[in-house]
Amino acid sequence: MTVEIAAPPVESETSAPAATTREGRGPLLSFLLLAAGRAVLCVLLVSLLTFVLASLVPGDSARSILGVNATPEQYAALRRELGLDQPLAQQYWDWLTGALHGDWGTSTVSGGSVGAELLVRGRVSLVLVVFAIVVAGVLGVGLGVVSAVRQGRLGRFVDVVSLIGAAVPSYWLGLVLAAVFAVYLRLLPATGYTPFGESPVEWFTGMILPGVTLGLTTMPLLAKQTRDSVSDELQKDYVHVLRARGLGERSVLLRHVLRNAASPILTVVGLMVVGLLSGTVLAETVFVLPGLGSWVVTATLAHDLPVVQAVAVCFTLGVVLVNLAIDAAYLALNPRARR
Amino acid sequence: MTTHLPPHPSVRRSRIWCVAAATLAALTLTACAPRGSDSEAAAGGATGEPVAGDTLTVAMPSPPTSLDPAKNDAAFVSYTLLAYEPLIYRASDGRLRPALATSWSYVGTGNKQLDIELRKDATFADGTPVDAKAVKASLEYVRSSQGSSAQLLSTVKSIDVRGQFSLSVKLSSPNPMLPDVLTQSYGAGQIISPAGLADPAALTAGSKSFGAGAYVLDPSKTVAGDHYTYTANQKYFDKSKQHYKKIEIRVIANSQAALNALTTGQVDAAVGDLTTAQQAKSTGLQIARIPTIWQGLNLIDRSGTVSKPLGDVRVRRAINFAIDRSAISKALLGDNGVPTTQVAVPGGDGYSKKAAEQYPYDPEKARQLLAEAGYADGFELKVLAIKLAGMDAVVQAMVPQLEKVGIKVELTVASDAQTYIAGASDGSFPAVAVGYGAQPVHILGQGLFLPDAPVFNGFHSKDEQLISLYEQAAAAPASKRSELDRAIIERLTDQAWFAPVTFAPVFYYARPDLGGVKVSPDAPVASPLDWYDTK
Fold first, then answer.
1. What does the pLDDT average to over B81-94?
2. Rounded distance, CA A178 to CA A183, Å?
3. Distances from the Cα of A267 to the Cαs of A155, A274, A327, A329, A334, in angstroms?
4. How many Cβ pairs within 8 Å bridge chains A and B?
5. Residues from chain A contacting residue B252 (CB–CB below 8 Å)
6. Is A59 near chain B, with CB under 8 Å?
7. What's the mean pLDDT in B269-279?
8. What is the pLDDT of residue A123?
9. Residue A255: which residues within 8 A CB-CB, separation 6 or more?
10. What is the pLDDT of residue B367?
C-alpha cells in the first residue's frame, strides 16, 4: 500500500551537508569530501594532542622498563635507544611519517609490532562494541517504543530505569553480573576471550556478560530518547490521518512513526557508540578481554607511547566513522536533507 | 626480586588506580628473599599424591616489562623462568638447589671468586648444548644490557671458562650473594642461548623463547599483555620437574576478576591482594601469604642538610618512639600486617630481637628526647609520600601521632613514581614514605642504605661503622655472615635511619587441591614450577 502523505519536517542536528552543495557537484560527493577532510583533520589533531599530553605526564617508558634501581647511565642509554632523547617535534614527525606508511612502530615495552597487535585487539573490541550495540539497540528501542505506546506506568518505569542506568557505573554492574551469572550460577565464563575460530560457542558465551554490561549501561538513554520521540510523533496529525485511512496500528508505528522518530534516536545512537568505545576500557578490564581498552590502560601506565598513539588514533577513527555513518543515515532517512 | 604490592582498601578510589598500583608497585619497589630459618608464612598446600597435570593456568596482575630475561623487571620473573633455566634454583623453602649448575662455591677468601660446575646433559630448546661458553656469553650479555638485572652483575670483573662445563666468576669487590643472584629470582641467572643472543630483536619481542627451561613459549597461543602460553620442552633434562603439559599465565589486573576466575575454575592460582583476601578465605581457597614489604618513613636527611632536627639522632629516635605501630598496622592491614621497628623481616637475614625491642610506643620518651635535642616546642617536617599500594596511608596514619609529640608534618603526596623518585633523590624532602621488600642485608645495602644507593638514600648518608660492618660481612664466610648482618640491622635501627611501621604481605590464592603452593621468608615470591596437581 502506498501512502502519499509527506513526511513531517525533521529537525536535523547534522551540519546540514546538503546546504554546502554547489552546482555541478552531487550532494553526496561534497558531503563525502567534507566529511573526509574533517576526519583527517580530526585524526591529526588528536594524534598531536595525545603526543603532547603524553609527553607532559611525568615519567617515560625507559623508567618503566628499568625500575627505580637503575643507574642514571643505564637510564640515559635506554632513553637514547628508544629515541626518547630526541626533540618532541622530531619524535612526533617520526611517528607520523611511519604511521602514514602503515608502520605503527614497536611497543617500547614489549618490543612487538603495534600494527599487528592492533589488528588482533581491535577485533576483540569491535566484537564487544557490536554485542553492546545489539543489546542496547534491541532493549532500548524496544522498551522505548512499548512504553510510548502504552504510556502510563510503563513509561514511568522506563524513566526510572533510565535514571538508574545513568547512575550505575558499568564497572560495578559488570562485577555484579559476574558475581551472579559466573560465580554463583556458573552459567557463563567470568573472564577471558575465546577466538571465534577456536570455539564459536565459547566465543559467544564469553561475550555475553561484557556485551550485556556495556549495553545495559548505555541502553537507558536510548530507551528514553525513543520513548520521547515516538510519543511526540504519535501526537501528530498525520498519525490520525493514517489511522483514519484504516492503516493497521503496527504499520503506522513501524513504517511511519518510527521512521520519523528516527533522527533524534540516531543522534543518541551516535553518542552511545562513542560512549561504548570508552566503555570498553572498563568492560575489558573487569572481564579481562584482550581488546584495545585494556591495552591502552597498561600502555598508558608504562608510558608506551606508540601503543597509546595507535589506540587514540583508532578510537578517533571509530568516532569519526560513526559520525559519518550517522550523517549518511540522516540523508537516507530524511529526503529534505538530500535536496 | 621485586614484588607486587597489594593496593590498600583506603586507597581503592578507582579501578584505574588499582591497575596503576599493581604495575607501578611492581616497577618501583624491590622485595627479595631474606635468609633465615623459621617461617611466618600461613602457607597452604594440598596433601594429596602428586599426579601429572594437563594445563596449569595462573593469573598475574601485570604483564612482564620484557620477555628478555635481562630486561624483564624481577617482579615479573614468572614469565621468563618457565622458559629460561637458571644456573641455580631457589626452592619454595628458600634453599638453593642445583639447576644448570650442579655445584658452586667461593674460592679463596673474601667472596670474590665463585666457581661453577655445570651439568653435562643440558641443552637449549633448539638442541645446542648448555656449556661454559654459552653461560659466559649469557652472563656477559646481561651485564652489558641496559636491563634491570645489569646492576646485580656490575661488580663482575671477568668470567673465565675453565673447561667445557666449568667456569669462574671473578668479582672486583666481595659479593656473598652471587649464588642468589644466579637463581631464577633474577633475570641474570636465567641463561639465554647463543641463538637468542644473536637475535636481540626476537629476544626482546618474545616472538620465541631461547632458554633451556622446562617449558618453551608458544607464540601462536600468546597475546602480549593478555596471556602467555608455555608448552613442555621436549629436550628438558629433568622430565620429573615438568608437572604439566602446558602452563598458561593470564594477565588479570583487577583482583576481583582474578578471584572470580579462580572461583569458577578458569585459573588454578592467582596473585592476590588485601582487597580480596577475606573473600578468598571465605570461598575455601588455599591462601599462601607472607609479610614481606616494610612500610614507613625513610628519614633520609641524616646530616640535617635541609631539616636540621633530622641531623640529630635523638630526633630520629623520638620519631620512632612516637609511632604506635600496632595500632596503625591493625587499622590498615588487619591481621595481615606485622608491626616492625627494623627493616629485616622476622625469620629473615639480619633480623634482631634486640632491634625489635628498641622502640616501644612511648610518646613521653619521644617528647623527652626532642626536648634534649632542643626541640621542646617541636618542629616542622616536610614528608613526601606516593599514592601507591597504601604507602601514603601508612604515613597519613603517622601524622597525628607525630603531631602529638610536637612534630608537625607537611605532607606532599606524589601520584606517580617519577615525581616520587625525583623528590626522594634531589634533596627537596628530608623524609619520604617508603615500601620496600625484605632482602638479604647485602642486597638491601645496594638499594637502601649504602652511600650510592640510587633512590632510597637521597642525601647519600654515610656511616663509617655501618660501612665497615657491611664490608666485613661481604667478605665473611657464610658461617660468620649472619651475625654481621644482624649487627648491620642493629646499627641501622639504633641510628634510626628509618621509622618502619609494618610489614605488608604478598598473597597467593590457589584451588584447594593444588600442591606445592608455599612461600617462606627465604622465598616470598612463589614459582609456578613448584606447583602440581594432586589426587
1. 94
2. 6
3. 21, 11, 9, 10, 13
4. 155
5. 191, 288
6. yes
7. 88
8. 92
9. none
10. 97
**What is the pLDDT, as a whole number, of residue B44?**
46
Higher pLDDT, A220 or B493: B493
Q: State the Cα angle at B246 between B243 and B252, rounded to 5°.
A: 110
Q: pLDDT: is A111 or B446 the higher one?
A: B446
CA dihedral B439, B440, B445, B449 (to 10 degrees): 50
Mean of pLDDT over chain B: 87
Looking at the whole model, is its pTM more than 0.90? no
pLDDT value of position B83: 95
Helix and strand tally (H, E) in chain A?
A: 14, 0
Range 17-46 of B in CB contact (< 8 A) with A: 19-20, 23-24, 27-30
Q: How far apart are CA B162 and CA B494, in angstroms?
A: 46
Nine-digit cell string for B210? 631461547
CA distance A210 to B338: 40
How high is the pLDDT of residue B9?
31
pLDDT at residue number B532: 95
Confidence of residue B135 (pLDDT cuts 50, 70, 90): very high
Interface of A with B in 202-241 (CB under 8 A): none
Nearest-Cα residue of chain A relative to residue B417: A59
Q: Name residue B434's beta-bridge partners.
A: B296
Concatenated DSSP letters of B98-154: ESSEEEEEE-SSSS-EEEEEE-SS-B-TTS-B--HHHHHHHHHHHHHSSSTTGGGGT
The residue with greater pLDDT, B528 or B278, is: B528
Query: Quick one: cell of A91?
Result: 619524535
Burial A23-55 (b: 16+ CB within 10 A, else e): eeeebeebbeeebeeebeeebeebbeebbeebe
Q: What is the dihedral of CA B5, B10, B13, B18, to 10 degrees?
A: 10
Check residue A245 and give its pLDDT: 87
Cβ of A81 and B147 within 8 Å? no
Distance CA A223, CA A159 (A): 9
Give residue for cell 603526596: B413
pLDDT at A274: 84
Nearest-CB residue to B264 (from A106, A182, A290): A182
CB B251 within 8 A of CB B226: yes
- Residues in contact with B140: Cβ distance below 8 Å, sequence separation at least 6, in sequence order: B159
A10 interfaces chain B, CB cutoff of 8 Å: no
The closest CB to that of A285, out of B2, B15, B223, belongs to: B15
pLDDT at A70: 67
B275 interfaces chain A, CB cutoff of 8 Å: no
In this predicted structure, what is the pLDDT of residue A13? 40
| Nearest Cα to Cα of residue B442 among B181, B75, B182 | B181
Query: Which ranges constitute the DSSP H helices of B323-477?
Result: 325-333, 353-356, 363-372, 391-404, 417-425, 441-444, 464-475
Q: Which residues in chain A are contacts of B205 at CB distance < 8 A?
A: 106, 110-113
Number of neighbouring beta carbons within 10 Å of residue A118: 18
- The 3 state secondary structure assigned to B253-322 is CCHHHHHHHHHCCCCCEEEECHHHHHHHHHCCCEEEEEEEEEEEEECCCCCCCCCHHHHCHHHHHHHHHH
Cell of B430: 628530608
The pLDDT assigned to A339 comes to: 55
Q: For B210-262, how does the pLDDT look when each residue is reduced to its tens digit (9 = 90+)? A: 999 999 999 988 888 889 999 999 999 999 999 999 999 999 988 899 999 99
Q: Which residues of chain A have pLDDT under 70?
A: 1-27, 58, 64-65, 67-70, 335-339
Cβ proximity of B173 and B155 under 8 Å: yes
Q: Using an 8 Å CB-CB cutoff, list chain A residues near B16.
A: 297
The answer on pLDDT for B435 being more than 60 is yes
Answer for the pair A84, A254: CB distance below 8 angstroms, yes or no: no
